[in-house]
Amino acid sequence: MIVKPNYQTTVETYCEQIASGEVVACETVKQAVNRYLSDLQRVNTVDFPYVFNYDLAELYCTYFPIVLKHSIGEWRGQPFDLQAWQTFIHWNIHGWRNRDGSRRFRKVLCSMGRKNGKRT
Length: 120
Prior knowledge:
Helices cover about 45% and strands about 5% of the residues. It contains 4 helices and 2 strands. The protein has helices spanning about 5-20, 25-40, 55-65, 85-95, and strands at about 50, 95-100. It has a two-stranded antiparallel sheet with strand order 1-2. The radius of gyration is 15 Å and the shape is globular. The protein starts with 6 loop residues before the first helix and ends in a 22-residue tail after the last strand.
């Protein structure tokens, strides 16, 4: 039996760990987490033009291990399970929507250090 991860829990745990300092992160990552958390608080206010679609965010994160497999190295042929930081990125990209349903974030720049799975 395949156990489907709960990506919302993964993202919430990641945010808590970043905020508490349990996970070491640069200032930009801390700002991204803070923006995500503060934006969630503003979702149902009149002056905030965005909504968060949890079902879409979950769907896009679920895509990775179901469809994609590692193609090189020791993990070759294994499902591509997202790490917490990768889940956070995709959760934000695909979950945030304008009220008309279009994506909030249309361009993304993701930069990371060596040995973080960029090749895959």
